[in-house]
Write a structure and sequence with these properties.
Helices cover 45% and strands 18% of the residues. It contains 29 helices and 29 strands. The two termini are 57 Å apart.
Length: 883
């Protein structure tokens, strides 16, 4: 087997065929062991809008690592995969593709357009499957779900119908966020506010009855959106504003529109903002809508679905909203109504999906009444069934959103999604809501709208398990799930909605833990985006470094809730670490021969190095297991790195070479078993993080079982803990490091035998060094070794100070004294010349008086440094001469 192992880690050959082999052997499926504790995770379903990015790679790696460890720990594990139809996001992608072909969805019609979206889903679903395979994620594909599949559609309809019957879903005409490109409603959290260049337009609204105010026959109204003037229904002032109390009830003319509107009083108006007078346009502003309801004002919509002006906009009908704005401003100016303009930068809502400016639009939509659902979710956080957020601070984000939640607009004017289960009678207009269509369907027409994509994904943890069939085996066995892993940026969109829907329909929280990670940024800390051109395809990284290296980087670079910066230097380091493991494993496997699975020999046969490495291994298992439980994977990774690289590779393997080469047959056999045992445990500890390389190496060494995936995860063995051995080996390693440092400082090679004198402070440390002379001989190469409390420091020597001891090596052992004297004398001459040059320069009055003060000061500092170096060199020459 060793002959087949190259001397360099090659990820492509290591990964080849491995994933399919795991699938073929059914290792990704639950064990079905009813005695085992169940452990389940549902994957945050990626949108079928495109390929997965580095953030997805991070998200799935975290989940896969948890799942693989739990599987090895004997849990009956289910990791359920799936994808999200993503409503508006996917429809926008398909419409963009069609636009390039000169076709719109309206040209195709609903049925043919939806088929185009299904084709897109199949195309990108296949890409996502290949990316999942590359990342090594161990999901049970037999249970894969899609948010538009038949089972989930049944769950969606039941939730809609039940909430409707409870009065928690209602249909009403309200101001909503409207995407003019997608021509659909948006929820508040689908609107991104960006700074846009705009202007305040100050416009005259003339009195209609000859009233004057401050000597003028008009009032002054400021607006950023003159194109909405055609929907003006009132002017409002604050009732406590003394300036305008006599104007309440008066009427003014809306310019260009020639419609009278009344000046009303309403607490909505802030007296000290602007002029303290605002126009009220109920159909085009959510706050104006509320004012209009209080004062029974008409609601006049002036725009079409695509944000072009409609018949209520007079001569501007058919114009794009922004073109209409320019034309209206020009006409206001021409007719003397425009007083002035003031450029501003203000936050404007944009559609998260299409990027266009959102309109506030009066529209009939379906809503979820959120208050009772939110209160239920908040109350649950005070029970034992609470959801634990990791990090804890994100519970505040959840709570804050729930406490301030608005009713949720759930209808979307799209063709891709779950159709709303509501029908309208063609003759009477009667509305019917139900699980199935009316029997006399020819007399009914179904609501054309679909549901917000988050409505279906909010049911994901239980709808995927077979609900609403509460007798479904998976629902009874694996719900509630254990851990949800997702980004902190979708707490509002998804996490919160899963919690309140699950509590409402199952009576239980959907998961116990929510592990929240941040965003992946570039090396400069910038968010990755197309506009910056700094996005990185995870598949490109895998191709160069291998998936195990990418996974190691993502795990060790992460702290719950924090962002991570992608770094090619760190990817290089990750590959180097795996290469270190590869070569160490290759060496061990080469020495194991044809033994069965390694077994630890009796403890009375362990020498100090054996006792030490097994104690360190045990401490590492304990630490890694504890950090996994806390989701502190970065800390777990650091513990693994330090143990593998430092303790095992740099020290223990080196310490075993003498026995493997020159020990008795029994010593060799015992050492091989301990080496094999420790390597086996290392590979199992690393498997959840680096699944491919650990499987490859484990298969190459003597082992029991078919796959490391289903081998037992290492557990703590208290009998292996040995603090005394760790202290003793710590002292030995400190001695070896001190000698190496001395040799390095003196430029003396490690292979050169030297006289070593170790002055010890007590009998205990003397005993440690005396009984482990073979390690000192192997690593320090002493020509002569003295260990004693009465050691006197040689007159000329280099030393290293340890805890409880000092090691001395005579200079004559390290360097040729005559040669060293010659080097120092040469250095002294050079330093004397520098001192003389500097003194001469500083003795020149012209230089001191005319040169910049900073230059003079710099020269003085140089002179001091040269003098100090010269004194040190002369002192060194004296010591060499007296040696």
């Amino acid at each position: 087997m060793v002959k087949d192992m190259p001397t360099k880690f090659d990820p492509a050959s290591v990964e080849a065929g491995r994933y399919q082999w795991w699938i073929d052997n059914g290792f990704f499926k639950p064990s079905g062991d009813k005695k085992a504790h169940p452990y389940s995770i549902v994957i945050p379903p990626p949108n079928v809008t495109g390929k997965l990015h580095l953030g997805h790679a991070w998200d799935t790696t975290l989940q896969d690592m948890i799942i693989r460890q739990k599987r090895m720990q004997g849990y009956d594990v289910l990791w359920l995969p799936g994808m999200d139809h993503a409503g508006i996001a996917t429809q926008a992608k398909v419409e963009a593709r069609l636009r390039k072909q000169g076709v719109s969805r309206y040209d195709l019609g609903r049925e043919k357009f939806v088929q185009q979206v299904w084709d897109w889903k199949d195309e990108y679903g296949d890409i996502i499957h290949k990316q999942w395979a590359k990342m090594g994620i161990s999901v049970d594909y037999d249970r894969e779900r899609f948010t538009l599949d038949e089972g989930l559609n049944k769950a969606v309809r039941k939730v809609f119908v039940d909430l409707y019957k409870k009065g928690l879903i209602y249909r009403g005409t309200y101001i909503i966020n409207w995407d003019p490109q997608a021509r659909t409603a948006l929820s508040d959290i689908e609107v991104i506010h960006k700074d846009d260049q705009g202007a305040f337009y100050y416009v005259k609204y003339p009195f209609t009855d000859g009233t004057t105010f401050n000597g003028k026959d008009y009032i002054e109204i400021a607006t950023t959106r003159p194109e909405t003037m055609f929907g003006d229904e009132a002017i409002a002032v604050n009732p406590s504003d003394e300036r305008y109390k006599d104007l309440v009830g008066k009427k003014v003319m809306v310019p260009l529109v020639n419609r009278e509107v009344e000046i009303i009083a309403d607490d909505y108006v802030t007296p000290d903002f602007g002029t303290g007078m605002v126009k009220i346009t109920p159909a085009h502003d959510p706050n104006d809508f509320k004012v209009g309801k209080r004062h029974n004002l008409p609601e006049l919509n002036t725009m079409n679905e695509d944000a072009s002006m409609n018949e209520n906009a007079g001569k501007y009908e058919g114009m794009d909203r922004f073109d209409a704005r320019k034309a209206i401003v020009a006409d206001l100016k021409a007719e003397g109504y425009l007083l002035r303009e003031k450029s501003i930068v203000h936050a404007v809502g944009h559609s998260e999906r299409t990027g266009v400016q959102v309109e506030a639009r009066l529209s009939t939509q379906w809503f979820v009444k959120m208050k009772p659902l939110a209160e239920q979710a908040l109350a649950n956080q005070k029970t034992d069934d609470r959801v634990d957020f990791v990090p804890e601070r994100f519970e505040h984000t959840f709570t804050q959103w729930m406490e301030n939640v608005h009713d949720w607009v759930i209808s979307r004017q799209l063709w891709w999604g779950h159709r709303i289960p509501a029908w309208y009678n063609k003759q009477t207009g009667e509305m019917y809501v139900g699980m199935e269509a009316p029997k006399d369907i020819e007399n009914w027409e179904q609501d054309k709208d679909v549901l917000d994509t988050w409505f279906s994904s909010a049911l994901w943890p239980f709808s995927t398990m077979g609900w609403p069939n509460t007798d479904a085996e998976d629902f009874k066995r694996y719900f509630p799930t254990n851990t949800l892993v997702t980004g902190y940026d979708i707490i509002f969109f998804w996490v919160s909605r899963m919690i309140f829907q699950s509590l409402e329909f199952t009576g239980k929280a959907p998961f116990k833990h929510v592990l929240l990670h941040g965003l992946i940024r570039d090396e400069q800390g910038r968010k990755m985006s197309k506009s910056l051109g700094n996005g990185i395809d995870p598949m490109d990284v895998v191709k160069k470094y291998g998936v195990d290296a990418l996974r190691w980087f993502l795990i060790t670079g992460s702290t719950p809730g924090q962002d991570i910066r992608f770094s090619y230097k760190k990817m290089d380091a990750a590959w180097n670490f795996i290469n270190k493991i590869w070569n160490a494993s290759r060496y061990v496997i080469m020495n194991l021969g044809e033994m069965d699975a390694p077994q630890l020999p009796n403890a009375d046969k362990w020498d100090l190095a054996d006792q030490w490495i097994l104690s360190r291994l045990n401490a590492t298992i304990k630490q890694v297991s504890a950090q996994f439980e806390k989701f502190e994977f970065g800390e777990a990774g650091r513990a693994l790195y330090n143990f593998i690289w430092n303790d095992f590779c740099d020290w223990y393997i080196e310490m075993t070479k003498e026995k493997l080469n020159n020990g008795t047959a029994e010593e060799q056999a015992d050492t091989k078993n301990i080496l094999g045992y420790v390597l086996d445990q290392i590979l199992k500890l690393m498997h959840p993080i680096m699944p491919f390389v650990t499987e490859k190496l484990w298969q190459a060494m003597p082992h029991e079982g078919k796959s490391i995936m289903v081998a037992q995860y290492p557990v703590e063995h208290p009998e292996l803990a040995n603090s005394e051995a760790e202290t003793k080996m710590g002292d030995l390693i400190a001695l070896i490091k001190a000698v190496r440092q001395i040799r390095n400082d003196a430029g003396a090679p490690m292979s050169k035998p030297v006289k070593m004198l170790i002055k010890v402070d007590n009998a205990e440390i003397k005993h440690i060094f005396e009984t482990n002379r073979d390690y000192i001989d192997r690593f320090c190469h002493p020509a002569e070794l003295m260990i004693d409390e009465a050691v006197e420091a040689p007159k000329l020597s280099m030393s290293g100070i340890l805890a409880g001891a000092t090691v001395y090596i005579p200079m004559a052992e390290l360097v040729d004294l005559e040669e060293e004297k010659a080097k120092v004398e040469k250095e002294i001459k050079k330093l004397e010349q520098e001192v003389q040059r500097s003194e001469k320069k500083l003795g020149n009055e012209k230089f001191v008086q005319n040169a910049p003060a900073a230059v003079v000061e710099e020269e003085r500092q140089k002179a001091t440094e040269w003098q100090q170096k010269l004194a040190a060199a002369k002192e060194r020459l004296t010591s060499l001469t007296e040696a």
